[in-house]
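ok so I'm stuck.
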Amino acid sequence: MTAMTRKPMTFFVSFALISAIISFFGFHIVSGERGLMARPGLELKIVQAEEKLALLNKHQRFLQQRISLLHSGSVDADILAETARSELGLYGPNDVIISIDMSDLKF
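replied:
not stuck anymore, here's the structure
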């Protein structure tokens, strides 16, 4: 091939390659997993994660308060009675037991 016929071919190949690269990155910027169209969904996930973190922090403070009642110099009588009854199954015949699923509570 002569220099005259290679020049248009080189230009076309380089143009096609650059166009493919720009199209690839342009597509992913707009509609990729973290693109512009996915932004509202990502912001919603962030808000949900922050709400869950706040709930877990409240639950942690609740548990730390209960632990501090058990670790202090004198054990709180209510905590001791509640723990003994739940661990040993020591319930009276007239006792009413109400189970609370702690994972569903919103503190």
